[in-house]
Amino acid sequence: MEYISRELSVLTMSPTNKPVKIVESGSTVVFQTLDCFSNQIQNEDQPFSSVGWDKINPATGPLYINGAEPGDTLKVKIIDIKIDNKGVMTTAPNLGVLGDIVTGETTKIISIKDDKAIFNEKIQIPIKPMIGVIGTAPKDEEIPTGTPGSHGGNMDCKKIVKGSTLYLPINVSGGLLSMGDLHAVMADGEIVICGLEIPGEVTVKVDVLKGEELPLPMLDSEESIITIASEETLDEAAKTATVNMHRFLVNELGIEIDEAGMLLSLVGDLRICQVVDPLMTARMEIPKWIVEKYDYKLK
User: Which of 13, 184, 237, 274 has the greatest CB tally within 10 Å of its CB?
Assistant: First the structure.
């Protein structure tokens, strides 16, 4: 088992980032992570503005995987997600969907007890830890860890949980995988710019796949196969996620073009991941039993 300390983090995903650890394909690695505020908020007297944008969304890494070359696919099996016993939420004017309604900066510390987030004396929310930021280095640009894209990044997809497998593009030698921004629980949309932000650690198994032509990023969850896309508008993200899933059905399952479209209109669920990052993120989900009918299984 390999470990990467939360102190070894980056604020951009870049081909020029120096790897903090080198492993072989097939290795199991534990990423210890800071929360999205770099663990700077410890009480409710500290507002969002006390952190500074230069400390938002740190991602632990990057990890270099031997044998990973441009054009390959990185398979990231999420074995476990462990989180702290309390998390943080904040609101601020001009941030998120309700930014024109929120009148001030508010910080809320939320305890975790018996696998529930204690929101208030009446509401206890079952937790479902997920990874907000996870991605590889882009080919020839530096992208902030707070921005999602075709490399992954800050997709804030609540389906990236323990037991799921994420497939990411390898754009540079070694892949340079980084991750962070864990949430104890988060709803689709992440409408006030945060979920229940929390530090923790993620255990993953990384494998380099050669010769795969998947529409990436792609997620194999417990019940669904999912394509994830991030674009300037939600409409564009929704279209890209749908087109990518359609391409998967045609290229991998061999379904005829028009029939694949009809199938998606019957069983494909188009959903929002987040609407508060520099790019919007949507996903298209199809039930796993569909691909099983074609005797297809992701590697």
Answer: 13
Looking at the structure, do residues 158 and 42 belong to the same domain, yes or no? yes
- The string of pLDDT tens digits covering residues 39-91 is 999 999 999 999 988 899 999 999 999 999 999 999 999 999 999 999 999 99
Residues 275 and 159 in one domain: no
Residues 139 and 263 in one domain: no
- Whether residue 92 is contained in a domain is answered as yes
Using alpha carbons only, how large is the chain's radius of gyration in Å?
19
Q: Going by DSSP bridges, is the β-strand pair 21-24/59-66 parallel, antiparallel, or unpaired? A: parallel
- If we measure between CA atoms, which residue out of 253, 257, 115, 278 comes closest to residue 185? 115
68 CA to centre of own chain: 21
- pLDDT at residue 103 greater than cutoff 90: no
Give a yes or no: residue 140 inside a domain.
Answer: yes
Question: According to the model, what pLDDT value does residue 146 have?
Answer: 97
The pTM of the full predicted model, rounded to 2 decimals, is 0.97
In this predicted structure, what is the pLDDT of residue 135? 98
| Boundaries of domain holding 199 | 2-209
| CA 192 vs CA 72, 100, 136, 278: distances in Å | 36, 11, 26, 14
Other beta carbons within 10 Å of 187: 12
Q: Which helix (H) or strand (E) holds 247?
A: helix 234-253
